[in-house]
Amino acid sequence: MRKPRSMAALEDFGRVRLSPSFFMRDFLYSEIAGFHGVPNLPDDPGLAIAAGGQLCETLLEPLQAAFGRLAIRSGFRSRLVTEFGHRRRECGSVRVNAAYHVWDLRDADGCMGGGATVVVPWFADRHAAGADWRALAWWIHDHLPYAHLQFFPKLAAFNIQWHERPARRIDSFIKPRGCLTRPGMANHAGSHADWYAGFPA
After folding, report:
1. Binning pLDDT at 50, 70 and 90, where does residue 1 land?
2. CA–CA gap between residue 63 and residue 46 (Å, rounded)
3. Helix (H, G, I), strand (E, B) or coil at 88
């Protein structure tokens, strides 16, 4: 598939179904792109579709099946949008986001990946009432083949990444800040079910 260069082509690209519940259009909106008028279009649509399909099938679909509708805060970001946002200190560099938010660019090791920033409304309400963000982090850790998670204070939103070589690391900007777990840490293996008692099966 070629890079969309017309409105009709963009509409067709947006209609590409990535999984039973998600279409490419769900991931193309960007506040940075919309506000500043920077096109958010992939240079390699085929790679973006492949990475986005894996993200949706392996992570977002089961997450939505367990907790109900997800809100997508940020999904695909083009290299152009990422470079623009990075210059304004509104997002990370293209190098950092390759195979993460920049779905259509392999990382330095040649690996494919894709990520999105999502809110789980079911959990956001509970977090606002005092629930610990680590409860959801450990649920995902125990149930889904994620590559990286990173939690944010507003709405308990988090980045979730699919990657060909998953790092299985969780970081957070919510207290306690920093790295919750990564391979080699004592807490990485085993069940963490005590953290998420009462969560959906």
Report:
1. confident
2. 25
3. coil
Q: What does the angle CA 39 – CA 77 – CA 96 come to, to the nearest 5 degrees?
A: 135
**Token pair recorded at residue 11:** 């509409």
pTM of the shown model: 0.95
- Whether a cis peptide bond, with omega within 30° of 0, leads into 176 is yes
Cα(60)–Cα(63) distance, rounded to whole angstroms? 5
Predicted pLDDT at 132: 98
Q: What is the per-residue DSSP string for 30-68?
A: -HHHHHHT-----SSHHHHHHHHHHHIIIIIHHHHHHH-
Amino acid making up residue 189: A
Interior/surface letters 55-66, b for 16+ CB within 10 angstroms, e for the rest: bbeebbbebbeb
Please report the pLDDT score of residue 5 as a whole number. Answer: 87
Asked whether residue 110 carries a pLDDT value surpassing 90, the answer given is: yes
